[in-house]
Amino acid sequence: MATKDRITCHVLDTTAGRPARALRVQLTHTPPSAPDAGAPTAAATTPRTFESITDDDGRVKTWLPYSAATASGD
């Protein structure tokens, strides 16, 4: 059994009444701004994006670094 990441996702296809399988999903974390903390580094303020594809139950259990919008997601 695969270990789940701390953030999971569950997608339901409400038109079909079942889990949405094989759906490519994306998660972006935008760090909060640090007021008056000096000049933050680019790495500290750059959003980080992850992606995955839902399994047969419509769930994402593991997030991968984002590749590109045109990549296959494999």
UniProtKB/TrEMBL annotation:
<dbReference type="InterPro" id="IPR023416">
    <property type="entry name" value="Transthyretin/HIU_hydrolase_d"/>
</dbReference>
<dbReference type="Pfam" id="PF00576">
    <property type="entry name" value="Transthyretin"/>
</dbReference>
<protein>
    <recommendedName>
        <fullName>Transthyretin/hydroxyisourate hydrolase domain-containing protein</fullName>
    </recommendedName>
</protein>
<feature type="domain" description="Transthyretin/hydroxyisourate hydrolase">
    <location>
        <begin position="7"/>
        <end position="72"/>
    </location>
</feature>
<dbReference type="InterPro" id="IPR023418">
    <property type="entry name" value="Thyroxine_BS"/>
</dbReference>
<dbReference type="InterPro" id="IPR036817">
    <property type="entry name" value="Transthyretin/HIU_hydrolase_sf"/>
</dbReference>
